[in-house]
Prior knowledge:
Chain A has 207 residues and is of the alpha/beta class. Chain A contains five helices and eight strands. In chain B, α2 runs antiparallel to α3, α3 runs antiparallel to α6 and α6 packs across α9.
Amino acid sequence: MDLTVTDLSIARGGIPVLGHVSLTLRSGCALVLRGPNGIGKTTLLRTIAGLQPPLSGTIGLPSEDVAYAGHADGIKSTLSVTENLRFWARIFGTGDIAPALAAMDLAALAERPAHSLSAGQKRRLGLARLLVTGRRFWLLDEPTVSLDAASVALFARAVRTHLSNGGATLMATHIDLGIAEAEVLDLTPFRAAPSAAAPGGFDEAFA
Amino acid sequence: MTALLLRDLTLALRAGGGFGLSLAFFLIVTVLVPFGVGPEGGVLGRIAPGILWVGALLACLLSLDRIFALDYEDGTLDLMATAPIPLETVTATKALAHWLTTGLPLTLAAPALGVLLNLPTAGFSWLTLSLAVGTPALSMIGAFGAALTVGLKRGGLLLSLLVLPLYIPTLIFGADCVRRGVEGLPTTTPLLMLLGITLGSVAILPFAAAAAIRVNLR
């Protein structure tokens, strides 16, 4: 099963940002979304993840097969690294967190409370969560923010392993992960036409 | 579901979790009221059921905005919405965790605090029973209010205004149950009404709260 997006139009805060986006993501493939700030990369990812409805168009998606990682990592600062990760493993019904800890080089930090982690270490914990979800499609929003070069390489390796196991990733990122097989989709041509960008009534007041 | 419940309980019990806050507030109210009302035992005993119920209700209200706001801020709610457990289960579980950390301790502490308010001995069992039956409704209605206001900055005021009117039936029947128990009148009617409100909110509000969260996550 592939992830297919057909003729999708999306809005943020009642204002259309992207129109007529179509893309296909096959197993073992990585697709990188590019585009200037505010073009709607995050909104597109959130729409595909099912967190908000599209204006029009369809998203063909194997149900319950998507793991989403946004700007916030969903880490509880009073729980330890292991407790945070084990919680998500139990929510997703997968057992072992040791491979995820090892893959993101968190084994040495396993018993540390999350509030004592640095920003980059927190991000690594957030990305390790993806590994315990057991989901095939990863939707990643700026996954490399606050990671150092070594951690980016670590993450790229995790992504490549995921791809070779039949997974797929759709990510919005500005840096080159060094994944050769990744395709790049520039969202600029899909920008919603200015005429369509009429103020969306009262919705904007609540955005 | 168990994982979520255990995590919420752990978070509440750890430093900064706010577990003791409601209980301390309840204690303060019941300790201060006798000083304000004066030492006349008769007056105090008569208003004790109402004071205890109002105190428990306000103590419950105090911790409501924590139910979803913290999870919203750190992104957990986004991730939970894409997780395999339905949001309805999430809201019901979080309401249960809220009750276990506020409603249950309040219920258990109430008889001891009833002594401070000179509550007649006949009322003790009815106080405990009515709180045990009524406080789950407070947590569930509160979780619904918290879900409605989850995306708002400083949503606490709005949350209180939304939830307070919904709390009034529980308060009326709860306090009435204790008053009737003290006076030796039959308590079946208020107790059944209280139970009805609780069961009704537990049956309906998880769905309403989940729908509210879905809208707020957009």
